[in-house]
Amino acid sequence: MGQSSRAISLRHKEHLRYIRNNNPIPTYAMHILHNRHQIGPADETLKLLKPCNKGTKMNCWEALHTNMHYRQGLLIPEQQVTDTNPLFNLATIPRDLQANSPNSSSQPVIPYTHTAG
Predict the structure, then answer these.
(1) Which end of the chain is more exposed for a tag (fewer CB within 10 A), N or C?
(2) Mean pLDDT calculated for residue range 47-63
(3) What is the pTM of this model?
């Protein structure tokens, strides 16, 4: 789960480079390297949740989506929830998150918010 002002395809290439270079600094790369997961194509491993402009709005959307994924048990273990705003508990969890189980896929999917356009 994360945000990027860059295109998802570029972000995916960055993750691949981190993994190829055995660089566990990004949380996702750490998860892939420590669990020996295979990484697939961007269209199978990344999902755009909310296109928006970089800044406060993007930060709020990221925190909300991170919280919703956390509540459904869909975050990778290495990712921490740092914003525990009680208003997030009022948010309705989308059906696609409710239908997923934490261990339903061998390849973790990284949802992203990114700058529109």
Answers:
(1) C
(2) 88
(3) 0.65
